[in-house]
Design brief:
The protein has 3 helices and no strands. The protein is mostly helical and about 55 residues long. The radius of gyration is 16 Å and the shape is elongated.
């Protein structure tokens, strides 16, 4: 589900950049994509650590 949401978000960014490249640059859309990817990566790391600590108990 997470990968699908990234594909949809990247597709949306590509559509917006295709319509108006300068407007997309002013909106800093790529920064939003990078932030979302970094945030979800951090959440997944925390999730893996929590699952590992539960399994060792």
């Amino acid at each position: 589900m997470l990968a699908l949401s990234f594909l949809v978000m990247i597709g949306f960014v590509l559509l917006v950049e295709g319509w108006d490249a300068e407007g997309a640059h002013e909106l800093h859309l790529k920064n939003y994509v990078y932030f979302a990817m970094a945030f979800s990566f951090g959440v997944e790391i925390l999730n893996m650590k929590m699952l590992k600590s539960k399994a060792s108990k």
